[in-house]
Design goal:
The complex is a heterodimer.
Chain A lengths: L1 H38 L8 H8 L2 E12 L6 H5 L3 E8 L7 E12 L2 H7 L4 H9 L9 E6 L12 E3 L4 E5 L6 H16 L3 H7 L10 H4 L8 E10 L5 E4 L2 H15 L5 E10 L8 E3 L4 E4 L5 H11 L9 E7 L8 E3 L11 E4 L3 E5 L5 H5 L4 E4 L2 H15 L11 E3 L9 H32 L7 H22 L3 H19 L12 H40 L1
Parallel strand pairs in A: 1-3, 1-4, 4-6, 5-17, 7-9, 7-12, 8-16, 11-13, 12-15
Antiparallel strand pairs in A: 2-3, 5-6, 10-11, 14-15
Helix pairs in contact in A: 1-16, 2-13, 4-5, 7-13, 9-12, 13-14, 13-15, 14-15
Chain B lengths: L2 E2 L23 E11 L5 E11 L9 E3 L4 H10 L1 E10 L4 H4 L9 E8 L6 H16 L11 E2 L19 E6 L6 H9 L15 H4 L4 E12 L7 E13 L1 H5 L5 E2 H5 L12 E7 L10 E4 L4 E7 L2 E9 L3 H5 L7 E4 L7 E5 L9 E5 L32 E3 L3 E7 L26 E7 L3 E3 L8 H25 L12 H13 L5
Parallel strand pairs in B: 2-12
Antiparallel strand pairs in B: 2-3, 3-10, 5-6, 5-9, 6-8, 7-8, 9-10, 11-16, 12-15, 13-16, 14-15, 17-18, 19-22, 20-21
The chains are: A alpha/beta, B alpha+beta.
Chain lengths: ~550, ~500
Amino acid sequence: MAAAGAAATDLEVARGKRAALFFAAVAIVLGLPLWWKTTETYRASLPYSQISGLNALQLRLMVPVTVVFTRESVPLDDQEKLPFTVVHEREIPLKYKMKIKCRFQKAYRRALDHEEEALSSGSVQEAEAMLDEPQEQAEGSLTVYVISEHSSLLPQDMMSYIGPKRTAVVRGIMHREAFNIIGRRIVQVAQAMSLTEDVLAAALADHLPEDKWSAEKRRPLKSSLGYEITFSLLNPDPKSHDVHWDIEGAVRRYVQPFLNALSAAGNFSVDSQILYYAMLGVNPRFDSASSSYYLDMHSLPHVINPVESRLGSSAASLYPVLNFLLYVPELAHSPLYIQDKDGAPVATNAFHSPRWGGIMVYNVDSKTYNASVLPVRVEVDMVRVMEVFLAQLRLLFGIAQPQVPPKCLLSGPTSEGLMTWELDRLLWARSVENLATATTTLTSLAQLLGKISNIVIKDDVASEVYKAVAAVQKSAEELASGHLASAFVASQEAVTSSELAFFDPSLLHLLYFPDDQKFAIYIPLFLPMAVPILLSLVKIFLETHKSWRKPEKTD
Amino acid sequence: MAAAMPLALPVLLLLGPGGWCLAEPPRDSLREELVITPLPSGDVAATFQFRTRWDSELQREGVSHYRLFPKALGQLISKYSLRELHLSFTQGFWRTRYWGPPFLQAPSGAELWVWFQDTVTDVDKSWKELSNVLSGIFCASLNFIDSTNTVTPTASFKPLGLANDTDHYFLRYAVLPREVVCTENLTPWKKLLPCSSKAGLSVLLKADRLFHTSYHSQAVHIRPVCRNARCTSISWELRQTLSVVFDAFITGQGKKDWSLFRMFSRTLTEPCPLASESRVYVDITTYNQDNETLEVHPPPTTTYQDVILGTRKTYAIYDLLDTAMINNSRNLNIQLKWKRPPENGYIHYQPAQDRLQPHLLEMLIQLPANSVTKVSIQFERALLKWTEYTPDPNHGFYVSPSVLSALVPSMVAAKPVDWEESPLFNSLFPVSDGSNYFVRLYTEPLLVNLPTPDFSMPYNVICLTCTVVAVCYGSFYNLLTRTFHIEEPRTGGLAKRLANLIRRARGVPPL
C-alpha cells in the first residue's frame, strides 16, 4: 500500500517536473519569439556598405576637348600624325574626403574645309559666326581651334581667344615640340573655360573645413531645383515720393534673357512687389561736409532684418528666394550713400548679402523737389538698377569672373549676360556640390539609423535611399564619361531622393520612446511570470544535481 | 553677412528701345473705412474694412508684379487657382440680443471656405495644401483642417463674387471652433495692408487694445469682381475686415462716452497716401425724439443716412483725405458724449490676477419696488497647477459669498435717539435718520467643482491588466506543476487525542 503510494507520488512529482519544464519550454520557444516579433520595429534593409563606399568615391570629371588644327598651325610632319587623342589628368587638391580628378581628353584632328574657310576670315567675330551654325555642341565639351602662328585673326600680341560659346582659338607654333607647347596652352584655356580649383572650392564650401577665405566662397546660393527671384521696391515715404518703376519691361528686357540662358541650372520664377512704409533697420548718419546721409559698412548687416519681415515668405513654393531690394530713402534721409571700409561712398550705392540677395539705394534727384509739391513723381531709371541687380545675380549664382590666362583675349559680353561656357562651369560646380550634399545626407542618415535602433525604416524610405545611391553612382559615371547634362540631372535626383529619405516624418515616430517606460510596462507582466518558472527550474536543477551525486556516493 | 561690393560691371545690357512707356493709370486702388457704432447695450463696436482692388487677371500671367495687392495672397490665387477665398478668425461671440445684428458675420474660431477654379483637377489636394500654406501665412492652426472637418455644402455658401457656374464640387468649407485668435494672427494680417500700420486707419490697430475686447473678428475675403459696368473683364478684390466690440464699462469707468483714444489708445494722425478713400463713419442715430442726446466732437463735415440692416441710420462722416480734417489739430480724436446724465448707477470692476488677487465687482443700483434682480457671473473652469490642488480636490473650491448692503426704508418713523444711550444691539451701524435702517445680506458661499486630473491612470491600467494576467497565470502554473499526494496522518489531530484519552478512561480501545 505504502509502496504503491510512494510510486504514485513519484509519478506525480515527475509529472510536475515535466509540466514545469514544458512551461519553461513554451515560454522560451513560443513566448520569447512572439514577444520579440510583436515589439520589434520594422527596419527595411539599407545599402549601408554602398553608402559608406560613397564617401571614398573618386570623382573623375572629364572635359572632352576637340582640338582642330588648321593647315599652317603646326609643322607638316606633326600634322601627319593626326588624328589622335591625348589625355591630361590632374588631381584637384581639396581638403575633402572625395578625391576629385580633372581629366581633359583632347581629341586632335585636322580642320574641315568649312572650318579652314571660317578661320581664314578677317576677324574673330566673323569666324565665330561662320563656325557656329552647323554644329551644336554638347554641354561641357569644348572646341579649340589652333590657327597659324602668323594669322591675323587675333591681335598680334594675343596668344589665345575665348569665345562666348564653347569655342576657343589658340595660336599655333612651328616648333619641334609643337604638340607639347600647344597642348599646354590648350589646357590653360580649357581650365579657364571649365574647371578650376576655385570653382570647385566654392561649390564645396559647405563641406570643406573653415578657413579664412571661406566666407567669400559661401556667397553663392546653394544648389536647388529652382529659384525664386523677387524684386521689391521699398518706398518708406509715400507722402513725399510717388515712385514708379517699369519692372515689367525691365524683367522682360534684361532678366528674362539671362534666366533663359541659365534655365539648364534650374527653374526660375520672377515676381515683383512694392512695399510702402518699409524702413531700414538702422538710422543713417549725417555727414555735414557733403550734407548727405550715409550707412557705413558695419551697420549694413542690421539693415536687412526689419525689412525682411515685410518681404513676405514665398508661400507658394519651397525654392530658395533671392531678394533684390531697391530702396528709395525717405525725404528726411536723402541723399543716402553706402560707405565702404575706407569711408568712401560705393560707386553703385549697393551691397549684397550672401545667399540672400542685394539691396540698392536709389536717391531721388534733388532737382525734382524744387519745382513741384509733395509727393514728387519719381521715375526709376531701370537700366542703372538692373545693371547692379544683374551683376549681383551673377555673383549670387556663383558665376565668378574667369581667371584668364596671360595674353588671352576674352570676348565681349553677350546679349544674355552669360557665356555658354560659364553656364557649363556652373553646371560642373553644381553637379559636384549636389553629389557632395547627397553623399553627406546619405552618410548621416545611415549613421543615425545605425545608432538609434528604435527608428522605423519604412519601405518607401528605403527605396528613396536606394534611388539616391543609384543616382549618385550614375551621376559620377556620367561625369567621368563627360556627359555633363545627364550628370547634372542625376545629381539633382540624388539630392532630391536623399533629402526625401532624410526628412521623412515616419522616421520620428518611435524616436522618443525611452527605456524606463518600456521597463515600467514590462515588469508587472514579466516578473510574476518569470519568477515561478525560474524558481522551479532552479529546483529541478538542484534535485537532478543531488540525484546525480547520490549514485556516486553509493559507488 | 553683408559686404559692400565694388561692382566692376561687365554686364552692359543695352537691348531694345530705350524709351520708357508712359505711366498707365493705376491699376490697383485702396479704400479704407471705419464704422463706429454705439451698441444698445452700451458697448461700442468698431468695424474696419480695407478694400484693395486690382485690375489684373492673376491666373494668366507668368511673371506677376504686385503693388498694393499683397504678394503672398496673389501667389496663392495663381498657384492654387482660387476663385474665392474667405477666411475669418474670431474670438468671442456676437451677442445679437444685446448688440443687434452685425455687419460682418463670423463663427467663433477659424472659418475657411474656398471656391476653386473649375480647372483644378484634384480639389482635395489643393485644399489641403492651401490650408497648410494659409496656416503658415496667418500663424494659425489651419493645418488641422483635413477630411474629418471639411464639408462641401451644396445649398449654402454660394460665390460672393463673379461666377459663371456654381458646381459645388469646387467648394470646400471648414471651421475650427477651438482656434484661439491672438496677436500672432493679427500681425500677419496687418502686414498685408499697403500702409502696414504706419498711416491711415490702420494706425489704430494696436494689438493690446484690440484683444482686450468682448469680441474680436478679423477676416480676409478675396473674390473676383467686375472691372467696369459692362463687366467685360474681371478684377480681384481683397477685403480685409476687422470688427471689435469694446466693453464700455471697462474702458469708460461706467460711462457710455467714448473717444478713439480711449478705445484704441491712439489717434488718427495722417491719412494713408495710397488710399483713394479713407473715411470714419460714426453712428449718431437717435432713437428718442429729442435730438440733443449725444454730441460728437469734432463736428462732422457731412452726414449720411441710409437703411442699414432694416433700420434707418444716420452716420457722421469724417473724411481723412480732406486736408482740413487733420491739419487743424495735427491729429484726429473723435469723441462722443451722451448729454443726458447716465442712469443712476455705479459699477466698479477690478479683474482678478491669477494667484495674486481676486475679482471685485461692486454695483450701486436702485431697484424698483416689487422687482426681481438677477446678477449672474460666469465662471470658467480651469485646471490648476498640480501642486495647487488641495488634498481633497473633489470636494470643490469655494467662492466667497456676495454681499448686499442696503438702506431699507423703515415702516415706522422713529424718532432720532441718542446714539450713545441706545442698546448695543441697535447701534453698530449708524443711521442718519430714523426713516431708514441698514441691512447687509450675505449669500451662501459657492462650491465649484474644478476638473481634477488623474495622473496615474495609464499606469494603473497597465498594472491592473498585468496583475490579472499574472494571477490567472500563477494559478494555472500552480495547478499544473504542483505535486499532490495524500498525506498519511501520523499522530492525528487534537480531537483524536482527546477522544482516545476519554476512550482510555472508559476502557474502550483507542481509535
